[in-house]
Protein backbone atom coordinates (compact mmCIF):
# COMPACT_ATOMS: atom_id res chain seq x y z
CA UNK A 1 0.00 0.00 0.00
CA UNK A 2 1.42 3.42 -1.00
CA UNK A 3 1.95 6.24 1.47
CA UNK A 4 -0.81 8.28 -0.21
CA UNK A 5 -3.32 5.47 0.23
CA UNK A 6 -2.36 5.13 3.89
CA UNK A 7 -2.81 8.86 4.37
CA UNK A 8 -6.31 8.87 2.82
CA UNK A 9 -7.31 5.79 4.86
CA UNK A 10 -6.09 7.47 8.03
CA UNK A 11 -7.91 10.68 7.11
CA UNK A 12 -11.13 8.72 6.65
CA UNK A 13 -10.94 7.65 10.31
CA UNK A 14 -10.92 11.24 11.62
CA UNK A 15 -14.33 12.13 13.11
CA UNK A 16 -16.19 15.05 11.61
CA UNK A 17 -19.20 17.26 12.27
CA UNK A 18 -22.29 16.07 10.42
CA UNK A 19 -23.82 18.38 7.85
CA UNK A 20 -27.27 19.75 8.77
CA UNK A 21 -30.19 17.68 7.50
CA UNK A 22 -32.22 20.78 6.72
CA UNK A 23 -31.36 24.42 5.92
CA UNK A 24 -30.24 26.48 8.89
CA UNK A 25 -32.10 29.74 9.37
CA UNK A 26 -30.09 32.98 9.75
CA UNK A 27 -31.19 33.27 13.37
CA UNK A 28 -29.90 29.78 14.16
CA UNK A 29 -26.65 30.53 12.35
CA UNK A 30 -26.27 33.62 14.48
CA UNK A 31 -26.81 31.55 17.64
CA UNK A 32 -24.25 28.92 16.62
CA UNK A 33 -21.76 31.62 15.67
CA UNK A 34 -22.27 33.40 18.99
CA UNK A 35 -21.67 30.14 20.90
CA UNK A 36 -18.50 29.42 18.92
CA UNK A 37 -17.22 32.95 19.50
CA UNK A 38 -17.99 32.75 23.22
CA UNK A 39 -15.93 29.55 23.50
CA UNK A 40 -13.11 31.03 21.45
CA UNK A 41 -12.92 34.36 23.29
CA UNK A 42 -13.16 32.65 26.68
CA UNK A 43 -10.34 30.27 25.81
CA UNK A 44 -8.21 33.20 24.67
CA UNK A 45 -8.50 34.72 28.16
CA UNK A 46 -8.01 31.55 30.25
CA UNK A 47 -4.37 31.25 31.33
CA UNK A 48 -2.54 27.96 31.02
CA UNK A 49 -2.41 26.02 34.27
CA UNK A 50 1.13 25.32 35.41
CA UNK A 51 2.84 28.46 34.05
CA UNK A 52 4.17 31.13 36.39
CA UNK A 53 2.46 34.31 35.22
CA UNK A 54 4.16 37.65 35.67
CA UNK A 55 2.24 40.84 36.56
CA UNK A 56 1.14 42.94 33.60
CA UNK A 57 3.81 45.34 32.36
CA UNK A 58 4.29 47.51 29.29
CA UNK A 59 6.83 45.16 27.74
CA UNK A 60 5.72 44.85 24.09
CA UNK A 61 5.30 41.62 22.18
CA UNK A 62 7.94 41.41 19.41
CA UNK A 63 5.59 39.11 17.46
CA UNK A 64 2.50 41.21 18.08
CA UNK A 65 1.40 41.37 14.46
CA UNK A 66 1.87 37.62 13.97
CA UNK A 67 -0.17 36.90 17.11
CA UNK A 68 -2.81 39.29 15.80
CA UNK A 69 -3.28 37.58 12.45
CA UNK A 70 -3.14 34.11 14.03
CA UNK A 71 -5.65 35.09 16.75
CA UNK A 72 -3.30 33.77 19.43
CA UNK A 73 -2.70 34.97 22.98
CA UNK A 74 0.48 34.28 24.88
CA UNK A 75 0.31 31.99 27.93
CA UNK A 76 -3.37 31.17 27.34
CA UNK A 77 -5.23 28.13 26.05
CA UNK A 78 -5.08 29.71 22.59
CA UNK A 79 -1.33 30.18 22.53
CA UNK A 80 -1.33 28.84 18.96
CA UNK A 81 -4.56 30.52 17.84
CA UNK A 82 -5.72 29.33 14.41
CA UNK A 83 -2.41 27.73 13.42
CA UNK A 84 -4.00 24.26 13.50
CA UNK A 85 -6.59 25.26 10.87
CA UNK A 86 -4.63 27.82 8.84
CA UNK A 87 -1.50 25.73 8.18
CA UNK A 88 -3.39 22.64 6.88
CA UNK A 89 -5.50 24.78 4.55
CA UNK A 90 -2.42 26.48 3.10
CA UNK A 91 -0.55 23.17 2.77
CA UNK A 92 -3.42 21.44 0.99
CA UNK A 93 -3.76 24.33 -1.47
CA UNK A 94 -0.03 24.26 -2.18
CA UNK A 95 -0.11 20.48 -2.73
CA UNK A 96 -3.00 20.83 -5.13
CA UNK A 97 -1.25 23.68 -6.93
CA UNK A 98 1.95 21.64 -7.29
CA UNK A 99 -0.13 18.56 -8.28
CA UNK A 100 1.25 16.56 -5.38
CA UNK A 101 -2.40 15.70 -4.71
CA UNK A 102 -4.56 14.95 -7.73
CA UNK A 103 -8.26 15.62 -7.19
CA UNK A 104 -11.27 14.61 -9.21
CA UNK A 105 -13.47 17.68 -8.88
CA UNK A 106 -16.42 15.88 -10.46
CA UNK A 107 -16.53 13.25 -7.69
CA UNK A 108 -18.90 14.19 -4.85
CA UNK A 109 -16.69 12.64 -2.18
CA UNK A 110 -13.68 14.82 -3.10
CA UNK A 111 -14.74 17.67 -0.83
CA UNK A 112 -15.33 15.29 2.08
CA UNK A 113 -11.89 13.74 1.70
CA UNK A 114 -10.24 17.14 1.50
CA UNK A 115 -11.96 18.30 4.69
CA UNK A 116 -10.90 15.14 6.49
CA UNK A 117 -7.33 15.52 5.23
CA UNK A 118 -7.22 19.10 6.56
CA UNK A 119 -8.50 17.97 9.95
CA UNK A 120 -5.91 15.19 10.10
CA UNK A 121 -3.13 17.64 9.23
CA UNK A 122 -4.55 20.03 11.83
CA UNK A 123 -4.32 17.37 14.53
CA UNK A 124 -0.72 16.64 13.49
CA UNK A 125 0.08 20.37 13.67
CA UNK A 126 -1.50 20.49 17.15
CA UNK A 127 0.68 17.55 18.26
CA UNK A 128 3.78 19.25 16.88
CA UNK A 129 2.83 22.44 18.71
CA UNK A 130 2.58 20.57 22.01
CA UNK A 131 5.90 18.81 21.39
CA UNK A 132 7.48 22.16 20.54
CA UNK A 133 6.60 23.44 24.01
CA UNK A 134 8.43 20.48 25.55
CA UNK A 135 11.48 21.11 23.35
CA UNK A 136 11.57 24.78 24.38
CA UNK A 137 11.07 24.03 28.08
CA UNK A 138 13.77 21.29 28.10
CA UNK A 139 12.26 19.86 31.28
CA UNK A 140 9.97 16.85 31.42
CA UNK A 141 7.88 17.44 34.53
CA UNK A 142 4.25 17.02 35.50
CA UNK A 143 3.60 20.69 34.72
CA UNK A 144 5.10 20.24 31.26
CA UNK A 145 2.79 17.31 30.54
CA UNK A 146 -0.24 19.25 31.79
CA UNK A 147 0.62 22.26 29.64
CA UNK A 148 1.16 20.06 26.58
CA UNK A 149 -2.23 18.42 27.09
CA UNK A 150 -3.92 21.80 27.51
CA UNK A 151 -2.37 23.10 24.28
CA UNK A 152 -3.22 19.93 22.36
CA UNK A 153 -6.85 19.81 23.53
CA UNK A 154 -7.33 23.52 22.85
CA UNK A 155 -6.03 23.22 19.30
CA UNK A 156 -8.28 20.23 18.60
CA UNK A 157 -11.29 22.15 19.94
CA UNK A 158 -10.44 25.03 17.57
CA UNK A 159 -10.28 22.56 14.67
CA UNK A 160 -13.78 21.29 15.36
CA UNK A 161 -15.18 24.75 16.04
CA UNK A 162 -13.97 25.64 12.56
CA UNK A 163 -15.59 22.45 11.24
CA UNK A 164 -18.92 23.48 12.77
CA UNK A 165 -18.77 26.79 10.93
CA UNK A 166 -17.68 25.21 7.66
CA UNK A 167 -20.54 22.72 7.65
CA UNK A 168 -23.05 25.54 7.35
CA UNK A 169 -23.90 26.20 10.99
CA UNK A 170 -22.12 29.56 11.11
CA UNK A 171 -22.04 32.89 9.32
CA UNK A 172 -18.35 32.90 8.33
CA UNK A 173 -15.47 30.46 8.05
CA UNK A 174 -13.45 29.86 11.19
CA UNK A 175 -10.24 31.51 9.99
CA UNK A 176 -11.97 34.73 8.98
CA UNK A 177 -14.24 34.82 12.02
CA UNK A 178 -11.56 34.09 14.61
CA UNK A 179 -9.07 36.57 13.17
CA UNK A 180 -11.65 39.35 12.88
CA UNK A 181 -12.91 38.65 16.39
CA UNK A 182 -9.41 38.68 17.86
CA UNK A 183 -8.62 42.01 16.20
CA UNK A 184 -11.90 43.57 17.33
CA UNK A 185 -11.40 42.31 20.89
CA UNK A 186 -7.89 43.80 20.92
CA UNK A 187 -9.20 47.16 19.72
CA UNK A 188 -11.94 47.22 22.36
CA UNK A 189 -9.48 46.11 25.01
CA UNK A 190 -7.03 48.90 24.18
CA UNK A 191 -9.87 51.41 24.35
CA UNK A 192 -11.83 50.21 27.40
CA UNK A 193 -9.55 47.89 29.37
CA UNK A 194 -10.01 48.36 33.14
CA UNK A 195 -6.75 46.55 33.91
CA UNK A 196 -3.93 48.51 35.50
CA UNK A 197 -0.45 48.25 34.05
CA UNK A 198 2.81 48.54 35.98
CA UNK A 199 5.07 51.17 34.43
CA UNK A 200 8.67 51.49 35.66
CA UNK A 201 9.25 54.38 38.09
CA UNK A 202 5.62 55.52 37.83
CA UNK A 203 2.33 54.71 39.46
CA UNK A 204 0.08 52.08 37.82
CA UNK A 205 -2.09 53.30 34.96
CA UNK A 206 -5.21 51.97 33.31
CA UNK A 207 -4.51 50.26 30.01
CA UNK A 208 -7.68 51.35 28.24
CA UNK A 209 -7.39 54.78 26.64
CA UNK A 210 -10.97 55.88 27.40
CA UNK A 211 -10.93 54.48 30.95
CA UNK A 212 -7.60 56.19 31.63
CA UNK A 213 -8.98 59.48 30.25
CA UNK A 214 -11.98 59.38 32.58
CA UNK A 215 -9.82 58.33 35.54
CA UNK A 216 -7.32 61.15 35.00
CA UNK A 217 -10.10 63.76 34.74
CA UNK A 218 -11.65 62.50 37.98
CA UNK A 219 -8.46 62.20 40.04
CA UNK A 220 -6.36 65.16 38.94
CA UNK A 221 -7.08 68.75 39.88
CA UNK A 222 -5.21 70.13 36.86
CA UNK A 223 -7.66 69.17 34.10
CA UNK A 224 -5.43 70.51 31.33
CA UNK A 225 -2.56 68.30 32.47
CA UNK A 226 -4.94 65.33 32.71
CA UNK A 227 -6.19 65.92 29.16
CA UNK A 228 -2.63 66.21 27.86
CA UNK A 229 -1.62 62.99 29.62
CA UNK A 230 -4.63 61.08 28.27
CA UNK A 231 -4.21 62.34 24.72
CA UNK A 232 -0.45 62.08 24.32
CA UNK A 233 0.87 59.40 26.70
CA UNK A 234 3.53 57.37 24.89
CA UNK A 235 3.71 54.20 26.95
CA UNK A 236 0.10 53.03 26.56
CA UNK A 237 -2.87 53.51 24.21
CA UNK A 238 -4.01 57.14 24.21
CA UNK A 239 -7.04 59.09 23.01
CA UNK A 240 -5.28 60.18 19.82
CA UNK A 241 -4.87 56.51 18.90
CA UNK A 242 -8.54 55.90 19.75
CA UNK A 243 -9.75 58.77 17.56
CA UNK A 244 -7.41 57.69 14.77
CA UNK A 245 -8.90 54.19 14.90
CA UNK A 246 -12.43 55.59 14.75
CA UNK A 247 -11.38 57.55 11.64
CA UNK A 248 -9.57 54.67 9.96
CA UNK A 249 -12.33 52.04 10.26
CA UNK A 250 -14.84 53.94 8.03
CA UNK A 251 -12.01 54.60 5.57
CA UNK A 252 -11.21 50.89 5.31
CA UNK A 253 -14.91 50.09 4.89
CA UNK A 254 -15.15 52.66 2.08
CA UNK A 255 -12.33 51.03 0.14
CA UNK A 256 -13.98 47.62 0.60
CA UNK A 257 -17.13 48.86 -1.13
CA UNK A 258 -15.36 50.75 -3.93
CA UNK A 259 -15.54 49.17 -7.38
CA UNK A 260 -15.07 50.04 -11.05
CA UNK A 261 -17.63 49.18 -13.75
CA UNK A 262 -16.29 48.38 -17.22
CA UNK A 263 -18.69 48.19 -20.19
CA UNK A 264 -17.56 45.16 -22.19
CA UNK A 265 -18.50 44.33 -25.78
CA UNK A 266 -19.19 40.61 -26.27
CA UNK A 267 -18.73 38.56 -29.42
CA UNK A 268 -22.37 38.98 -30.40
CA UNK A 269 -22.05 42.76 -30.12
CA UNK A 270 -24.02 42.87 -26.87
CA UNK A 271 -22.85 44.94 -23.93
CA UNK A 272 -22.01 43.38 -20.56
CA UNK A 273 -20.74 44.99 -17.36
CA UNK A 274 -17.66 43.76 -15.51
CA UNK A 275 -17.42 44.89 -11.89
CA UNK A 276 -13.83 45.15 -10.62
CA UNK A 277 -13.82 45.49 -6.84
CA UNK A 278 -10.84 47.28 -5.37
CA UNK A 279 -10.96 45.00 -2.31
CA UNK A 280 -9.73 42.06 -4.43
CA UNK A 281 -6.37 43.84 -4.72
CA UNK A 282 -6.04 45.16 -1.14
CA UNK A 283 -5.64 42.02 0.94
CA UNK A 284 -2.60 40.50 -0.80
CA UNK A 285 -0.32 43.58 -0.60
CA UNK A 286 -1.35 44.34 2.98
CA UNK A 287 -0.62 40.84 4.31
CA UNK A 288 2.50 40.04 2.28
CA UNK A 289 4.01 43.46 2.99
CA UNK A 290 3.61 42.93 6.74
CA UNK A 291 4.87 39.33 6.58
CA UNK A 292 7.98 40.08 4.51
CA UNK A 293 9.03 43.39 6.08
CA UNK A 294 10.05 41.99 9.52
CA UNK A 295 12.56 39.62 7.90
CA UNK A 296 15.26 42.25 7.18
CA UNK A 297 14.59 43.79 10.61
CA UNK A 298 15.27 40.53 12.44
CA UNK A 299 18.30 39.71 10.27
CA UNK A 300 19.80 43.17 10.75
CA UNK A 301 19.27 43.15 14.51
CA UNK A 302 20.85 39.71 14.95
CA UNK A 303 23.81 40.55 12.72
CA UNK A 304 24.42 43.91 14.41
CA UNK A 305 24.59 42.31 17.86
CA UNK A 306 27.38 39.99 16.69
CA UNK A 307 29.17 41.97 13.97
CA UNK A 308 28.52 45.62 14.78
CA UNK A 309 31.92 46.66 13.37
CA UNK A 310 31.31 45.19 9.91
CA UNK A 311 30.70 47.78 7.19
CA UNK A 312 28.07 45.73 5.33
CA UNK A 313 26.21 44.99 8.56
CA UNK A 314 26.18 48.69 9.45
CA UNK A 315 24.96 49.49 5.94
CA UNK A 316 22.05 47.13 6.47
CA UNK A 317 21.15 48.72 9.82
CA UNK A 318 22.45 50.23 13.04
CA UNK A 319 20.67 49.48 16.32
CA UNK A 320 21.78 51.82 19.06
CA UNK A 321 18.77 53.70 20.44
CA UNK A 322 16.13 52.80 22.97
CA UNK A 323 12.47 53.66 22.67
CA UNK A 324 10.09 54.24 25.57
CA UNK A 325 9.56 50.47 25.81
CA UNK A 326 13.23 49.86 26.48
CA UNK A 327 13.73 48.10 23.14
CA UNK A 328 16.50 48.88 20.67
CA UNK A 329 15.42 50.70 17.52
CA UNK A 330 17.21 51.26 14.19
CA UNK A 331 19.08 54.57 14.00
CA UNK A 332 20.84 54.15 10.67
CA UNK A 333 21.28 52.03 7.58
CA UNK A 334 18.74 50.66 5.12
CA UNK A 335 16.48 49.25 7.83
CA UNK A 336 16.15 52.70 9.41
CA UNK A 337 14.74 54.18 6.22
CA UNK A 338 12.24 51.32 5.88
CA UNK A 339 10.87 52.02 9.38
CA UNK A 340 7.81 54.15 9.99
CA UNK A 341 8.66 57.60 11.42
CA UNK A 342 7.64 57.42 15.12
CA UNK A 343 5.62 60.64 15.08
CA UNK A 344 4.30 63.08 12.51
CA UNK A 345 6.87 65.68 13.60
CA UNK A 346 9.63 63.43 12.24
CA UNK A 347 8.32 64.07 8.73
CA UNK A 348 9.64 67.62 9.06
CA UNK A 349 12.79 66.70 10.98
CA UNK A 350 13.97 64.06 8.51
CA UNK A 351 12.11 64.48 5.20
CA UNK A 352 14.50 62.14 3.36
CA UNK A 353 13.59 59.31 5.75
CA UNK A 354 9.90 59.99 5.23
CA UNK A 355 10.30 60.11 1.43
CA UNK A 356 12.19 56.79 1.26
CA UNK A 357 9.68 55.10 3.59
CA UNK A 358 6.63 56.32 1.62
CA UNK A 359 8.20 55.44 -1.74
CA UNK A 360 9.20 51.96 -0.54
CA UNK A 361 5.75 51.12 0.83
CA UNK A 362 3.88 52.37 -2.24
CA UNK A 363 6.18 50.72 -4.80
CA UNK A 364 6.33 47.40 -2.93
CA UNK A 365 2.55 47.23 -2.55
CA UNK A 366 2.02 48.01 -6.24
CA UNK A 367 4.44 45.30 -7.35
CA UNK A 368 2.99 42.75 -4.90
CA UNK A 369 -0.55 43.42 -6.14
CA UNK A 370 0.44 43.15 -9.80
CA UNK A 371 2.51 40.04 -9.12
CA UNK A 372 -0.40 38.33 -7.41
CA UNK A 373 -2.66 39.15 -10.35
CA UNK A 374 -0.11 37.73 -12.79
CA UNK A 375 0.04 34.51 -10.74
CA UNK A 376 -3.74 34.33 -10.67
CA UNK A 377 -4.06 34.84 -14.43
CA UNK A 378 -1.47 32.14 -15.13
CA UNK A 379 -3.70 29.57 -13.41
CA UNK A 380 -7.01 30.62 -14.93
CA UNK A 381 -8.32 32.36 -11.81
CA UNK A 382 -8.41 35.66 -13.68
CA UNK A 383 -10.53 34.36 -16.58
CA UNK A 384 -13.01 32.66 -14.26
CA UNK A 385 -13.43 35.88 -12.28
CA UNK A 386 -14.16 37.93 -15.41
CA UNK A 387 -16.58 35.41 -16.96
CA UNK A 388 -18.52 35.11 -13.70
CA UNK A 389 -19.09 38.85 -13.51
CA UNK A 390 -20.00 39.12 -17.18
CA UNK A 391 -22.61 36.40 -16.88
CA UNK A 392 -24.13 37.95 -13.79
CA UNK A 393 -24.22 41.51 -15.10
CA UNK A 394 -25.23 40.87 -18.71
CA UNK A 395 -27.79 43.27 -20.17
CA UNK A 396 -29.84 42.77 -23.35
CA UNK A 397 -28.65 45.88 -25.12
CA UNK A 398 -26.38 46.64 -28.04
CA UNK A 399 -22.77 47.54 -27.39
CA UNK A 400 -22.11 51.25 -27.00
CA UNK A 401 -19.21 53.08 -28.70
CA UNK A 402 -17.42 53.56 -25.36
CA UNK A 403 -17.44 49.83 -24.52
CA UNK A 404 -14.20 47.85 -24.62
CA UNK A 405 -13.54 44.50 -26.23
CA UNK A 406 -13.44 41.41 -24.03
CA UNK A 407 -9.78 40.85 -24.95
CA UNK A 408 -8.86 44.21 -23.37
CA UNK A 409 -10.21 43.35 -19.91
CA UNK A 410 -6.89 41.93 -18.77
CA UNK A 411 -5.12 45.25 -19.36
CA UNK A 412 -7.74 47.15 -17.37
CA UNK A 413 -7.68 44.64 -14.52
CA UNK A 414 -3.89 44.98 -14.30
CA UNK A 415 -4.38 48.73 -14.02
CA UNK A 416 -6.93 48.14 -11.28
CA UNK A 417 -4.39 45.89 -9.52
CA UNK A 418 -1.86 48.73 -9.71
CA UNK A 419 -4.39 51.19 -8.26
CA UNK A 420 -5.40 48.69 -5.58
CA UNK A 421 -1.80 48.14 -4.52
CA UNK A 422 -1.25 51.90 -4.40
CA UNK A 423 -4.36 52.35 -2.21
CA UNK A 424 -3.19 49.55 0.08
CA UNK A 425 0.15 51.34 0.49
CA UNK A 426 -1.58 54.65 1.23
CA UNK A 427 -3.73 52.98 3.90
CA UNK A 428 -0.68 51.32 5.49
CA UNK A 429 1.25 54.62 5.60
CA UNK A 430 -1.72 56.58 6.92
CA UNK A 431 -2.45 54.03 9.65
CA UNK A 432 1.20 53.84 10.73
CA UNK A 433 1.56 57.62 10.97
CA UNK A 434 -1.63 58.31 12.92
CA UNK A 435 -1.08 55.28 15.20
CA UNK A 436 -4.29 53.25 15.08
CA UNK A 437 -4.95 50.38 17.47
CA UNK A 438 -3.76 46.94 16.26
CA UNK A 439 -2.17 48.60 13.20
CA UNK A 440 -3.94 49.46 9.98
CA UNK A 441 -3.20 45.99 8.65
CA UNK A 442 -5.14 44.36 11.47
CA UNK A 443 -8.14 46.63 10.97
CA UNK A 444 -8.12 46.00 7.22
CA UNK A 445 -8.02 42.24 7.84
CA UNK A 446 -11.02 42.48 10.17
CA UNK A 447 -12.98 44.59 7.68
CA UNK A 448 -12.03 42.32 4.77
CA UNK A 449 -13.17 39.26 6.70
CA UNK A 450 -16.53 40.61 7.81
CA UNK A 451 -17.51 42.88 4.90
CA UNK A 452 -18.41 40.09 2.41
CA UNK A 453 -21.11 38.81 4.77
CA UNK A 454 -22.58 42.29 5.16
CA UNK A 455 -22.36 42.71 1.38
CA UNK A 456 -24.16 39.41 0.76
CA UNK A 457 -21.14 37.62 -0.69
CA UNK A 458 -20.25 35.35 2.22
CA UNK A 459 -20.57 32.21 0.09
CA UNK A 460 -18.25 33.55 -2.62
CA UNK A 461 -15.17 34.21 -0.53
CA UNK A 462 -12.62 32.20 1.39
CA UNK A 463 -10.25 32.96 4.22
CA UNK A 464 -10.19 36.63 5.34
CA UNK A 465 -12.90 37.34 2.75
CA UNK A 466 -10.45 37.02 -0.15
From TrEMBL:
Membrane topology: Multi-pass membrane protein
Gene3D superfamilies attached to this UniProt entry: SecY subunit domain (1.10.3370.10)
InterPro entries xref list: SecY/SEC61-alpha (IPR002208), SecY_dom_sf (IPR023201)
Endpoints of the signal sequence: none
GO biological processes: protein transport
Superkingdom assignment: Eukaryota
Coiled-coil regions, chain positions: none
Transmembrane segments: 32-51, 77-98, 119-135, 141-161, 168-189, 239-261, 354-375, 419-447
Locations listed in the record: Plastid, Chloroplast thylakoid membrane
One of the record's GO cellular component terms: chloroplast thylakoid membrane
Keywords: Membrane, Transmembrane, Transmembrane helix
Family the UniProt entry places it in: Belongs to the SecY/SEC61-alpha family.
Record PANTHER family: SECY/SEC61-ALPHA FAMILY MEMBER (PTHR10906)
Name of the protein described by the UniProt record: Translocon Sec61/SecY plug domain-containing protein
Organism in which the protein naturally occurs: Oryza glaberrima
Organism lineage string: Eukaryota, Viridiplantae, Streptophyta, Embryophyta, Tracheophyta
Name of encoding gene: LOC127785197
